[in-house]
Design a protein that fits this description.
single chain, mainly alpha
Length: 110
Amino acid sequence: MGSSAHEIQGHLKKYYMVFGALLVLTGVTVAVAEFHVSIGMAIVVALFVASIKGTLVACYFMHLMEEKSMLIWILALCALFFLMLLLVPMFTIGEQDAGLMERMRGLSPN
């Protein structure tokens, strides 16, 4: 763990730059709230700025930049489960339609 003073200064400089970027992005969020823009546009800008700020915090302060291979596997697994959860209702639509058709046949005056 022989970190030299030069390496530590480099890390501190990186953290100060990220902190400065977070301050600027917070200022952008406040500025958008002060401008008279539509609610939809303000929400889009606020979500965009928040996602950038969240990414900066996760990558630099939570040290996720060094965990690339593990992070890719975790994100891929999350994406797989997300797609599975989106597809579950698609598979049950046919069952719901069949049940509805069965009930409709019972109501017909044959």
